[in-house]
Specification:
Main location: membrane
Number of domains: 1
Low-confidence stretches: 1-6, 348-353
Helix content: over 70%
Order of helices and strands: HHHHHHHEEHHHHHHHH
Protein name: Phosphate transport system permease protein
CATH topology: MetI-like fold
CATH architecture: Orthogonal Bundle
Family: Belongs to the binding-protein-dependent transport system permease family. CysTW subfamily.
Strand order of the largest sheet: 1-2
Structural class: mainly alpha
Membrane topology: Multi-pass membrane protein
Number of helices: 15
Organism: Arcanobacterium wilhelmae
Strand content: under 5%
Length: 353
C-alpha cells in the first residue's frame, strides 16, 4: 500500500518531460518576441534620429513628410480600416454563431461550421484578387447610392464649399459644425465626406474586404463559446417560460460575453496586420480624413511596407522598419488591452462559473 502511495505522489517521467517542454516553449516564445522587438528598435534608429530635412531628401515616398507625419497618416488608415471591418464583421459573426449553435439543425450546423473554418484558411491574396476583380464593380452602384443619400445630409450639417477666384468660399450649414469642417480637415462631418469617386478602391472597400477576412475567425471562436453555455441554465430559462431569443439574451450572450470580446480582439489583431488584400484593393494615399468613398486618401502601415520595401535601401529601409516598429507596439498594446478586457468580462460573466 505504501509503495502505491509513493508511486502516486511522485510525478511520472512523462509529466516531468511535458513540464520542461512546456516551459521551454513558453521561454522560446518570449525570447522570439524580445528578439523581434530588439531587431526593430536597432534597425530603426536612423529613422528616429534623422532630421526632417534628411528624411525629405533621402526618403522619396515620404512625400515631404517627416517620420511621424508619414507614420501617423499610415497608422490612421490602418486603424480606420480595422474599425470599419469590426463594425461590419462582429454583428454578422455573432448572428452566424448563434444560428449554428442554437437555431440550425445539427447536420446543417456541422456543415456550416466546416465551411466557416475553411473560409478562415483562404490566403489573403485570394481575397485581394476577388475584391479587386469581382467585388469592386458590384460595390460601385452601392457606394453611389450611399453617397446620394448621405451627401445632402452632410451638406446640410457642415455647409457647402466652392472655389471663387481661387479661394474656397463656404456657405450654409450649422454654425458649430460648419466651423469645424472649415478649419479642420480631419473633422468627420465634411460636405464631401460621403462623395463617391469611382473606382471603388477606397478605405470603405478595404474595410469590407477585411470584414470578410476576419468574419470566419470571429465566427468560429464565438460559436465555440456559445456551444459551451451550460445546458442546465438554458433548460432552466426555457422551463421558466422564456422564449428561445429571451433564453439567448439572458443566458447565452452574458455567458459568452468574454468570448465575444476575445474573438473580436483577435480579429482586430488580424485586421491591423493585413497586407496583401489591402495592397491590392486600396488606391493608396496618406491623408488624415474621413472621406471613406474617395480613392487615393488612405493607406496602412503594412501595405506601405510591402509596397515600398523591395526597392528601399539605406535610410528608406530603416524608415520602413521604424514604421513596422510602431505597428508592432500598437498591436502589442491592443493585445494587452484585450487580455485585460477579457479578464474583466470573465469576472462578471458566467464563463467561470
Amino acid at each position: 500500500m505504501s509503495e502505491k502511495l509513493n508511486l502516486i505522489g511522485k510525478p511520472s517521467k512523462g509529466d516531468t518531460a511535458y513540464k520542461w517542454i512546456a516551459t521551454i516553449a513558453a521561454i522560446t516564445i518570449l525570447l522570439l518576441l524580445a528578439g523581434v522587438a530588439i531587431f526593430l528598435a536597432m534597425s530603426s534608429q536612423n529613422a528616429f534620429l534623422s532630421s526632417a530635412q534628411t528624411i525629405e531628401s533621402q526618403v522619396s515616398f515620404a512625400r515631404g513628410m517627416g517620420f511621424w507625419g508619414f507614420t501617423g497618416a499610415a497608422l490612421f488608415g490602418t486603424v480606420l480600416a480595422s474599425l470599419i471591418a469590426l463594425v461590419i464583421a462582429v454583428p454578422f459573426a455573432v448572428g452566424i454563431a448563434l444560428f449554428i449553435s442554437h437555431y440550425a439543425p445539427k447536420r446543417v450546423g456541422t456543415v456550416s461550421g466546416y465551411v466557416i473554418d475553411l473560409l478562415a484558411a483562404i490566403p489573403s491574396v485570394v481575397f485581394g484578387l476577388w475584391g479587386m476583380w469581382s467585388l469592386e464593380p458590384l460595390m460601385r452602384p452601392i457606394f453611389a447610392g450611399i453617397s446620394s443619400i448621405l451627401t445632402p445630409i452632410f451638406e446640410f450639417l457642415a455647409g457647402t464649399k466652392e472655389l471663387v477666384n481661387g479661394e474656397t468660399v463656404w456657405s450654409g450649414g450649422l454654425p458649430g459644425l460648419r466651423y469645424m469642417a472649415e478649419h479642420f480637415a480631419w473633422w468627420p462631418i465634411q460636405p464631401d465626406a460621403a462623395a463617391f469617386t469611382p473606382p471603388a478602391r477606397n478605405i470603405l472597400m478595404g474595410g469590407i474586404i477585411l470584414a470578410i477576412m476576419i468574419l470566419p475567425i470571429i465566427t468560429s471562436l464565438t460559436r465555440e463559446v456559445f456551444l459551451k453555455t451550460p445546458r442546465l441554465q438554458e433548460e432552466a430559462a426555457i422551463g421558466l417560460g422564456a422564449t428561445r431569443w429571451e433564453m439567448i439574451r439572458m443566458v447565452v450572450l452574458p455567458h459568452g460575453r468574454s468570448g465575444i470580446v476575445s474573438a473580436t480582439m483577435l480579429g482586430l489583431g488580424r485586421a491591423l496586420g493585413e497586407t496583401m488584400a489591402l495592397l491590392m484593393v486600396l488606391s493608396p494615399g496618406l491623408q488624415i480624413n474621413f472621406n471613406l468613398l474617395k480613392p487615393g486618401q488612405h493607406s496602412t502601415i503594412a501595405s506601405q511596407i510591402a509596397l515600398r520595401f523591395p526597392e528601399a535601401s539605406g535610410l528608406s529601409a530603416d524608415f520602413l522598419v521604424a514604421t513596422g516598429l510602431v505597428l508592432f507596439v500598437v498591436t502589442f498594446a491592443v493585445n494587452f488591452v484585450a487580455r485585460a478586457i477579457v479578464a474583466r468580462y470573465s469576472e462578471f460573466s458566467g464563463a467561470n462559473a
